[in-house]
Amino acid sequence: MNPLSQAVASGLMSGAVYALLAAGLVLAFHTSRVVNLAHGEAYAVAGLVASALSGYGWPRYAALPAALLAAVLFLTSLEHFLLRPRRDWPVGSLILITLATAFLMRGLLQVVIGVDPLSFPRLFVGPPVRILGGIIPLQGIFLIVIGLGTAAGVLLLLRSPMGWRLRATAENPEMAALLGINTARMRLLAFGIAGALGGLGALLLVPLVSVDYQSGLGMTLRGFIAAAIGGMSPSWAIVSGVGLGLAEALVTTYMGALAQDPIVFLALIGVAVWQSRTIMFGGSVRA
């Protein structure tokens, strides 16, 4: 087995999920101007609900849609009941609300579902595929194809009439409202899409890697890192998500799992310093 090929295969699988998370986080951010620190909980909710319902004997055609719906309802409820009534609050306070929601959901999942890691059977069963010395399970092939295809579909959505309404809400909500766009509905839609993307990532990855009540925070961090490296641009966030997955896999393969988080976060600091090179003290921008 070729270690490099195997690392690339593993990196593409995790990178596809990070791309989904980053695309959803950016979409919600642009319509609400709030970095949703509970974003990764949609992943944990979908993964744990699907695993629990499968364990109770639910058929796949019922358990998976129910898990995806739970992820969508979680984020839309966050926007509708917690963020929308407090839109006039400072952005920092709204971010703290999302962080508190993340820890609340984390505790709720721990109490209701338990602390043990869970998983459910693979959706795509078959012999693994060998590519250039690397081995990818059939589930992993579909994860990469469906994950990246769905993330790319978000870019196509933004070019549709619905996407124009979302972009107008993000760029100038007051003007969008004057033009007859229901900005509250657009923000709710953005959070719903973000929940669906996070839930889809869980349904594709959890059959390969188990999930527990603590998984949400890690996925939030990965999605945010990819979004930040991509400059909060949907297209570049997807590219950054794939790059982050590849970087993590390569570091784990050649330097060990313990080096993964320090190197990834060091790279994030480097990118932040590079992106802020044109900003002077006081917040002004250099010519």
If you had to describe this structure to a student in words, what would you say it looks like?
By secondary structure, the chain is mainly α. It has one domain: ABC transporter involved in vitamin B12 uptake, BtuC (Orthogonal Bundle). The chain is built from eleven helices and two strands. It has helices spanning 3-32, 41-55, 60-83, 91-112, 138-157, 161-171, 173-178, 183-205, 215-229, 234-255, 260-275; strands at 129-131, 134-136. Strands 1-2 form a two-stranded antiparallel ribbon. Residues 281-287 have low confidence and may be disordered.
User: What is the end-to-end distance?
Assistant: 51 Å
Radius of gyration: 19 Å
CATH class: Mainly Alpha
CATH topology: ABC transporter involved in vitamin B12 uptake, BtuC
Would you report the number of β strands?
2
The structural domain count equals: 1
Unreliable sequence segments: 281-287
CATH architecture: Orthogonal Bundle
Portion in strands: under 5%
- Given helix and strand content, the structural type is mainly alpha
The number of distinct helices, counting runs of at least 4 residues, comes to: 11
- Biggest sheet statistics: 2 strands, antiparallel
Instruction: Give the strand order, joined by hyphens, for the main sheet.
Output: 1-2
What sort of overall outline do the alpha carbons produce when their principal axes are compared?
globular
Bin the helical content.
over 70%
- Summed over residues and divided by their number, the pLDDT gives a mean of 90
Order of helices and strands: HHHHEEHHHHHHH
